[in-house]
Design a protein that fits this description.
With about 220 residues, the protein is an alpha/beta fold. Helices cover about 30% and strands about 30% of the residues.
Amino acid sequence: MHVHHLLEKNSVANVLISQLRNVSIQTDRMRFRRNIERLGEIMAYELSQSLNYTSKEIRTPLGTAVVPEIDEELVICSILRAGLPLHTGLLNIFDGADNSFISAYRHHPNDDEEFEILVEYLASPSLENKTLILADPMLATGRSFANVLKALENMGTPKIIHLVSVIGAREGIEYLQDIFPKNSHLWIAAIDEELDERGYIVPGLGDAGDLCFGPKEQH
């Protein structure tokens, strides 16, 4: 898997990540969601440079022009619920893409720190020979992405897979290297070095789903 780390170079993405992490700013849910959406737009632009294009002739008011257009069938799949603002940002750029939605959440069967990832909902078009973009803002252990990949198997085999995350832990990224095809790509804004005992990213930013949409009861 090819890893594209946006914050290796200074850009406006640094500012958005700073605001997402900042406890005095992230309490504004609308701003938090919008910043994730804006990062989705930035990462969609970066990702777009790796896609295949075909030159087409179009008419203008004064003549004709030859322009390159994306020559791939895109499907954006977000992992509910935290993936929704990121999905919106990607869809703002890839506005002609098909869409897929899947649930994946941490289930704590013994009400302790141990958890398993459960997938309970899937709505998706065929993925056969498509370009699949999987969106989840937080890449912690990597198990959500891995379980979603397993759940999507019956929808067909994508031509290529792009994973898009805002913040990830190095341990989770290394775990996915052995799960996803070698020609897959991970587009990620920030990479943090560790997970805590609960499997959350440190320093991370907290629970992205709760910060976007409000707290939930634990399962």
